[in-house]
Structure formats: C-alpha cells, structure tokens
Amino acid sequence: SRIQRFSRTLSSSHNRSHLALIDVKGFEPKDVSVEVKDGKVTVLAEHREERNTSVSKTCNYRKFMKEFNLPPGVSEDEVTYSL
C-alpha cells in the first residue's frame, strides 16, 4: 500500500502561532523523529521489517522525510511537537 503524505502550514494573525501538520500514516511513533537545527525542522520516519520463512527472506523498508524552514521570528527553542 502507498503511504499518504500530507503537509500544510497554517498561520494565525491573532497570536502569530504556526502549525505544521505532517501525516506519517503507516509508521509507529517510535519510527518517527523530529529535529530542530539551523532554522529548519526535519521530520524523519523510517521502518524496517524482516520476515524469514523456510524458503525465503523478505525485507520491507519505508522512509519518509520532510524538511521546512522555521517562519521568520520563530526561535528554535519555541518549537514543540507531538505525535
């Protein structure tokens, strides 16, 4: 099955807060990491699954990465995220 990828940035002129929504459907929370560095936010999701049978070995590997710049005036220390 194909992983759906969705991202959107929303802003509010009232409180200057920003929200990025990233759909990492198909990944467990332990597969997802978020890094804030050098004015950028990087979301990385990786999953590896191996199965062995008596006649073969299969490996399923998925990776998703999304990187975006922080909006002007937003400090790296102000960034929070949840899964």
UniProtKB/TrEMBL annotation:
Family named by the database record: Belongs to the small heat shock protein (HSP20) family.
Keyword Ubl conjugation included in the entry's annotation: no
Keywords carried by this UniProt record: Cell projection, Cilium, Developmental protein, Differentiation, Flagellum, Spermatogenesis
Gene3D superfamilies noted in UniProt: 2.60.40.790
Domain named SHSP: residues: 1-83
PANTHER family associated with the record: OUTER DENSE FIBER PROTEIN 1 (PTHR17125:SF2)
Location in the cell: Cell projection, Cilium, Flagellum; Cytoplasm, Cytoskeleton, Microtubule organizing center, Centrosome
GO cellular component: centrosome; motile cilium; polymeric cytoskeletal fiber
One Pfam family from the record: HSP20
GO biological process: cell differentiation; spermatogenesis
Protein name: Outer dense fiber protein 1
Functional description taken from the UniProt entry: Component of the outer dense fibers (ODF) of spermatozoa. ODF are filamentous structures located on the outside of the axoneme in the midpiece and principal piece of the mammalian sperm tail and may help to maintain the passive elastic structures and elastic recoil of the sperm tail.
SUPFAM superfamilies per UniProt: HSP20-like chaperones
